[in-house]
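Each lists sequence, tokenised fold; shown next:
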Amino acid sequence: MLKRLTLAAILITPIAPATFFGHQAYTALLGQTGAPWLAVVGGIATAIGLELVGLLAGHTTIEFWRRGDRRAWLAAVLLVAYIAIGTIELRRVPVGRAVFVIAGLAYIVAGLRHDAEQVAAETAQDHEDDRAEAQELARLRLQYQHEEKLARIQAKATAQAAT
């Protein structure tokens, strides 16, 4: 359930800021070029490009942070830049500003979810490794006890045969 919600968050949430930002780019390009087709292409490319930066910055920040990599700070700055660009460019559109913050939060939450799933998988693997190691140790202990018992029996038989 949480995987689906996380996927929905990173797929649906960016549609709003992409739409607002793409429309701003479309309007600006249409005013400058007078060519609707060019404005449409430019608006779509601008929206997709900005959202890709936000998505990558959010996930990269979490990944670097999880590894203890200092580059997490640079990725976090890029995420803040994504949010700042969106909110500054859409300062005259109140909802437009909010959707960039919400999208940034969605990226961070998705990254945290991914991190939590990875930690859970690693923990499960660690438990499985511990269980397998405990089984192997128990098997070796039984084997050692069996060999020790056989050695005693053989020593006893050898001692009895010598007398």
